[in-house]
Amino acid sequence: SQQGEEDPQALSIQEGENATMNCSYKTSINNLQWYRQNSGRGLVHLILIRSNEREKHSGRLRVTLDTSKKSSSLLITASRAADTASYFCATDFTGNQFYFGTGTSLTVIP
Amino acid sequence: EAGVVQSPRYKIIEKKQPVAFWCNPISGHNTLYWYRQNLGQGPELLIRYENEEAVDDSQLPKDRFSAERLKGVDSTLKIQPAELGDSAVYLCASMSGSRYNEQFFGPGTRLTVL
């Protein structure tokens, strides 16, 4: 399968703590994206990192990419209850064709 | 700017019945995707369109699924006949023609096959 795999499958933290989730994949990529999905809703794009980039920031989000290990991590700092959602990585191997992982379910406890 | 529109939002049908889902992408977006998302899983690509051309439909179960994108704008995904295992959320996404760009997702259609 070309899908990425997120780790952990589920994560529960207290509000204000940091949340880290990881994504591993199997073949070389053009870029990797992270998406958020609230319960019963569509996916929302969070951040894109290209294969020649190692780290990107967007607000409270920090994404790293290690192409040698074929892995990426998403860090959410100072978490809020509104961050409760499922988070997916999507890898682009062939150009505009995305393969999603199984997701990490994040619960932020107020 | 309006987002990706999908209808219906929910559909309940008996097995062996046909069903169709409709998607209106963001204006000007050349690329359109249909995904299926099973409960607790990530979206799985069914088909990708570049304008009106289906450029990858390798994951589409062609014995019962069909899709079209007339005039390169709206798209319809059809299942005939539906099976119990088709119960899932069907997501449509669109993207502009640029590389390294983000997909915009619709809210999805939740299909329940009884």
Q: How are the SSEs placed, and which strands pair?
A:
The complex is a heterodimer of chains A (110) and B (114).
Chain A: E1 5-7, E2 10-14, E3 19-24, E4 31-37, E5 43-50, E6 55-58, E7 61-66, E8 71-76, E9 85-92, E10 98-100, E11 104-109
Parallel strand pairs in A: 2-11
Antiparallel strand pairs in A: 1-3, 3-8, 4-5, 4-9, 6-7, 7-8, 9-10, 9-11
Chain B: E1 5-7, E2 10-13, E3 19-24, E4 31-37, E5 44-50, E6 53-56, E7 65-68, E8 75-79, E9 88-95, E10 104-105, E11 109-113
Parallel strand pairs in B: 2-11
Antiparallel strand pairs in B: 1-3, 3-8, 4-5, 4-9, 5-6, 7-8, 9-10, 9-11
Describe this structure in words.
The complex is a heterodimer of chains A (110) and B (114). Chain A has 110 residues and is mainly beta. Helices cover 0% and strands 56% of the residues of chain A. Chain B is 0% helix and 48% strand.
Key traits:
heterodimer, A: 110 residues, mainly beta, 6-stranded mixed sheet, globular, B: 114 residues, 4-stranded antiparallel sheet, 48% strand
Summarize, please.
Chain A is an all-beta fold and 110 residues long. Chain A is 0% helix and 56% strand. Chain A starts with a strand and ends with a strand.
Structural class of chain B comes to: mainly beta
Main β sheet profile of chain A: 6 strands, mixed
- Quickly count the helices of chain B: 0
Largest sheet of chain B: 7 strands, mixed
Strand content of chain A: over 45%
Low-confidence stretches of chain A: none
> What radius of gyration of chain B results from the CA coordinates?
13 Å
DSSP, total strands of chain A: 11
Name the biggest interface: A-B, 23 and 26 residues
Mean residue pLDDT of chain B: 92
Give helix % range of chain A: under 10%
What quaternary form is this? heterodimer
Tell me the span between the first and last alpha carbons of chain B: 37 Å
